[in-house]
Write a structure and sequence with these properties.
5-stranded mixed β-sheet; alpha+beta; 55% helix
């Protein structure tokens, strides 16, 4: 009998050693847990075995692996520490058992857990805590579907397995934590490599962009460098949405539609926003960082370009001021400065006065100067002044305004030859523009075609027209105001139609007899000689001034 007991103990010891060796060979936590429950059930011969791990923060223990458990609810059971058998064992005080769990009144029951135990059919339960260095990490439990008491030998066996299991589990957890830390360090190293490479690309791009800015602050060339580096189309637009410059990506054709997202980075000069860098399509954080670098240099290039442009405008303005000043300047000096801007002193000089189409006049000035190499365009008070020796200036100017969809209002005049007489030419062009503005009309007006009417309209616009010049038609104005008639328009239309009654009736859309009746009323109010020289011209000019006043009033309203 003693020999049999000895051989039984020897087999059990060998089984425990094999179990410890198997546990030690495993590194994955789930593999270790699964090996624990299978080996424990095989050695004890119980209906089921399971192992739980503790969550100190939640104050609960959860079944992680099981063998022989039939229901999903039991396989995923969670118990508050200190309740039931599992919760009692997991506190780490000592091994614990119950011959019939549901009938055991010494336990602290949880109704929800009791229902799960009843559905599984569990009766007898015994388990041991899993402890490492005085710290309880969980519990190893065996259970039967019938009532019974577990022997001391069975408890010692499960406790021995639990001791080896706790060590193996601790090792696998440490190994897993080390593996996780290694992966995190490797990922961090890879990210650092990516970040370093990206910073290197930012530095290289910065160097290329700075070379462009310092050699020649050309926004177009700078955008080409940025577009090639990013593989994205780039555009610079002003604060009012006008495109200043653009560059394709240099790799693939853009297929981004107008409704697709865009990356927009502001261009800043100190606290002021001077435009935007726009790139079609969504942008990653890395792309945005590169776009911001391009935007910084683009803003710098714009500032340099504007400074150079301002200097050019200043020199052009000084040239125009000298040409218009009538000061006795050395002719050779003036002609040399004209040639610098492409103006040929031997040809007629055209002066074109234009109404600015935008509050910011730079885009218009830039476009006008680009339309002809033989011209100077400056901001000249309330208007833009274009001085050119290009006889074909008008189609070029019209094309600029049509392309930008700007309204064209231009007064023009030309010298006979060279810069002589430019002050009078400038004044004539200004009168022509004033006439268009007074009449609220668009297009180009030649100052030489306006005659006295242009001068009168300009004087009236400035409030310098003597009142007696229009008082001759005051009776018509008063009559129309009192009676609600239209004699002023009838008189002007009749004179414009060379006193042709039929043509006047067509223009006014009335019967010719109505025109004759109105003419009789006109003669009664103004006198029979209102339509005969010399009063005819005086009356005609006065009526045109009144018509221009009405047009200005309508435009303002």
């Amino acid at each position: 009998m003693s020999d049999m007991h000895g051989r039984s103990q020897e087999r059990l010891l060998r089984a425990l050693l094999d179990t410890a060796a198997d546990f030690t060979a495993l590194q994955d936590v789930e593999d270790v847990l699964q090996a624990i429950v299978r080996r424990t059930r095989a050695l004890t011969g119980t209906d089921m075995t399971y192992v739980s791990l503790n969550d100190p923060d939640r104050r609960e223990t959860s079944i992680r692996q099981s063998d022989g458990v039939a229901t999903a609810a039991y396989r995923t059971l969670k118990m508050p520490l200190g309740t039931g058998i599992l919760g009692q064992i997991a506190t780490g005080l000592a091994p614990y058992q119950s011959a019939d769990y549901l009938e055991d009144q010494d336990l602290k029951h949880v109704p929800r857990v009791d229902e799960i135990v009843r559905a599984e059919g569990v009766r007898a339960i015994m388990g041991v805590p899993l402890t490492i260095h005085g710290r309880v990490i969980g519990a190893l439990v065996v259970a039967e579907r019938h009532s019974r008491r577990f022997t001391t030998e069975e408890i010692d066996l499960v406790d021995s397995i639990g001791t080896h299991a706790a060590v193996a589990l601790d090792n696998s957890m440490r190994f897993e934590a080390t593996e996780r830390l290694t992966r995190e360090l490797e990922a961090r190293q890879r990210q650092m490599t990516v970040d370093i490479e990206h910073l290197q690309s930012v530095r290289d791009l910065d160097r290329e962009l700075m070379d462009v800015v310092m050699v020649s602050p050309d926004v177009q060339e700078l955008l080409c460098v940025g577009a090639a580096a990013l593989g994205r189309e780039l555009r610079v637009v002003s604060t009012d949405g006008i495109e200043v410059s653009a560059a394709p990506d240099g790799r693939t054709s853009s297929s981004v539609g107008s409704g697709d997202p865009e990356a927009v980075v502001p261009l800043r000069a100190g606290a002021d926003e001077i435009g935007h860098l726009v790139s079609p399509g969504p942008a990653s954080e890395a792309d945005l960082l590169l776009l911001e670098r391009v935007a910084v240099h683009a803003a710098l290039a714009l500032l340099f370009s504007r400074a150079a442009e301002d200097a050019d405008l200043r020199r052009q303005s000084e040239l125009i001021d000298d040409l218009l000043s009538q000061r006795n300047l050395p002719r050779e000096h003036v002609e040399r400065r004209m040639r610098r801007w492409g103006l040929d002193p031997s040809k007629p000089v055209h002066v074109v006065m234009l109404t600015p189409p935008l509050e910011d006049r730079r885009p218009c000035l830039r476009a006008l100067r680009g339309a002809s190499a033989r011209s100077v365009a400056i901001d000249h008070g309330s208007h833009i002044c274009l001085v050119t020796t290009d006889a074909g200036w008008e189609p070029a100017v019209r094309r600029v305004f049509d392309d930008h969809r700007w309204r064209l209002q231009a007064g023009a005049a030309a010298t006979v030859a060279g810069p002589d007489g430019l002050p009078d030419t400038h004044r004539t062009a200004e009168l022509a523009l004033g006439t268009l503005v007074n009449l609220d009309r668009g297009g180009v007006a030649e100052g030489t075609d306006l005659g006295f009417l242009g001068a009168l309209l300009d004087l009236d616009q400035r409030g310098d027209l003597p009142r007696p010049l229009t008082s001759s038609v005051s009776p018509l104005v008063d009559y129309d105001r009192r009676r609600g008639t239209d004699l002023v328009r009838t008189a002007l239309t009749y004179l414009d139609a060379d006193s042709n009654v039929i043509r006047t009736a067509e223009l006014l859309h009335v019967h010719r007899n109505t025109v004759r009746q109105r003419l009789d009323r006109l003669s009664a109010l103004l006198g029979p000689d209102w339509n005969r020289s010399p009063r005819r011209l005086e009356t005609h000019l006065a009526l045109q001034v009144l018509s221009a006043r009405d047009s200005r009033g309508t435009a303002r309203r």
